[in-house]
Amino acid sequence: RGLVRRPVDMSLVELERLAAPMGTVLLECAGNTNPNNFGLMSAAAWTGVSLRRVLARVIPLRKATRVLVSGFDDHSQPSRSSVAGASWIFTFEQLEAAGAFLATDMNGKPLSPDHGSPVRLVVPRWYGCACIKWVNEILLVDEEAPVTSQMREFAGRTFQDGQPELARDYAPATIDLAATAVRVEKWLVDGHIVYRVIGVMWGGARPTNALMIRFKSTERWTRVESCPLPPNTATWTMWSHTWRPDSPGSYQVVLRADDPAIPTGRLDIYFYLREVRIDEV
Predict the structure, then answer these.
(1) In this predicted structure, what is the pLDDT of residue 81?
(2) Mean pLDDT across 90-111
C-alpha cells in the first residue's frame, strides 16, 4: 500500500508457501542493559520470505523512497513504559543490505504470539525495536514521512541526535560491534590457579577477530587469546581468554576492538562492562 500504482494483499497461506530457511539471526533489545545482566538477546534459526521478494509484487510511484512496516500493537490497558503502535521506516537500500525478511517460523516451529505470530519482520544486525512483530501492513512512503511513535520511543536507546521529526533524519538502528563476558571459570593448572574468561561477540557490519580485553583501567589492553573470525555478523560468536590476576580483589572485564575503523558505540562507553570478584590467586 501507500505510494504504489496498485495495492496488493498477500495472504498468510501464500506467505507460508514461499517461506524458506533464512539462517540463524541474533536479536538484541535496544534496552539490553546491565540491570538485566545483558540477557535481552538471543539467536534463533528463522524461516521466512525475503522482504525484497514481497516488495517486488508492487510497482512503486516515483516519490516512493522508503518502506514503513507496521504491526498490530494496540494496548488493552494503559502502559506506563511503552507507547501503543509498532512500526519502523527504512530505505529500500537498508532493507536490501541487511537481508530483511518476514519470518513465519522460529527454530522449526510457527512463531508464538510473544514472538510476533503469525508474521514478524527480522532485520539482521538491527536492534529488536526495528524488527516489528505482528506485521499487518507495509506502506511505501516518501522523504517527508515523519518518524513513527516506535521510532520516537526508541530514539535515545538507538543513539539518535535528539528527537528527529522526519524518518530521513533518523540514523539506522544498527548494532555496532559489541562483546561482553558471560562466565569466569577457575582452573588449577600445574598447581597454579588460572582463570578463563568466556564471552560472546556480536554485531558490526563486517566480521572481525580484533578483540581486546583488560581488567583494570591502569592495565594495558591485550588481544583476546581465542577469538575465531566469524563467517558473518548475523549472529554471535564465542571468545575466551586465559587470565592470571596479580592479587585478589574486584576487577572489571572491559572489551574493545583493535581497529579504529570499526564502529563500537556501546563498547566505547563501557556499556557491557562486567564486574568480577577474585578471592584466590
Answers:
(1) 59
(2) 97
What does the alpha-carbon distance between residue 267 and residue 186 come to, in Å, rounded to a whole number? 26
Query: In this structure, how many other beta carbons lie within 10 angstroms of the beta carbon of residue 163?
Result: 12
Alpha helices, H only, 154-279:
265-268
pTM over 0.85: yes
> Could you tell me the domains of the chain?
12-169 (3.90.420.10), 178-278 (2.60.40)
Map grid coordinates 509484487 to a residue: 57
For 209-226, write each residue's pLDDT tens digit.
999 999 999 999 999 999
What dihedral do alpha carbons 90, 93, 96, 98 form, nearest 10°?
A: -70
Cα distance between residue 45 and residue 68, in whole Å: 25
Q: Report the distance separating Cα 244 and Cα 221, nearest Å.
A: 14
Position 77 scores a pLDDT of 60
pLDDT of residue 35: 73
Return d(Cα 57, Cα 15) in angstroms, integer: 12
Q: Which residue has the cell 512500526?
A: 87
